[in-house]
Amino acid sequence: MTDHGTTTPAATPPLLRAANLHRLLGSGEARAHILRGVDLTVHHNEYVSIVGPSGSGKSTLLYLLGGLDRPSQQNGDGKEFSPPSRVYIDGQDTWLLGDQELATLRNAKVGFVFQFHYLLKEFTAQENVALPMLKLGRRSRPQAMERAAHLLGQLGLADKRHRRANRLSGGEQQRVALARALANEPAVLLADEPTGNLDRRNGEIVADLFQQIASAGQTIVMVTHDTNLAARARRMITMEDGRVIGDRASG
Fold this sequence. Notes:
Number of strands: 10
Structural class: alpha/beta
Shape: globular
Mean pLDDT: 90
Largest sheet: 6 strands, mixed
Order of helices and strands: EEEHEEHEHHHEHEHEE
CATH architecture: 3-Layer(aba) Sandwich
Strand content: 15-25%
CATH class: Alpha Beta
CATH topology: Rossmann fold
Helix content: 25-40%
């Protein structure tokens, strides 16, 4: 895990910023306006939960914030949104980046944890965690494997690092996914229902780990239906019908 510090200089730009964020999917009568002009700022060292009913746009917002998707620039009638629909990651306007540039920024700045861990089942836990480091190219293979072993040890999986992913329990697999998300020391960790596929005991373990890394200074933005998990965050954003309807301190 990485300690990103506990103070944010006044001159530091927001880590994530959504400006008049829109997302439309489909076409014609099937077109759905998923996000409707969301404005949102996340600063360094924040631990944020995003809650709301299914279909409110939570996951779509998370994917846009992390550069996995791009915002829509026109409404259903072809009219440009004003002001433009934009996402900024660490001050960079992602709309101005090409696909490869955006992928590089995403790999360097953002870690993702999903409800389904998407581990490569034929690889060991250690190899799964090392992969994003090798892809980014900042560490040699021995260095990547060493850091992977260190992260797995911190998450209580030192004795499972050589085990193939498909021989791990659900809770263990999610912890490997968390280690993988932290591998490149991301500026922000984005989590989409990280306990949604776990039983209560393993859900509590993962929730405790999130709280620990947030306390160490890691910025986290998490979508969840779990009210207990959401309440652990220091800030809770509530969404409904593609809009932010609440934003308050919690935790």
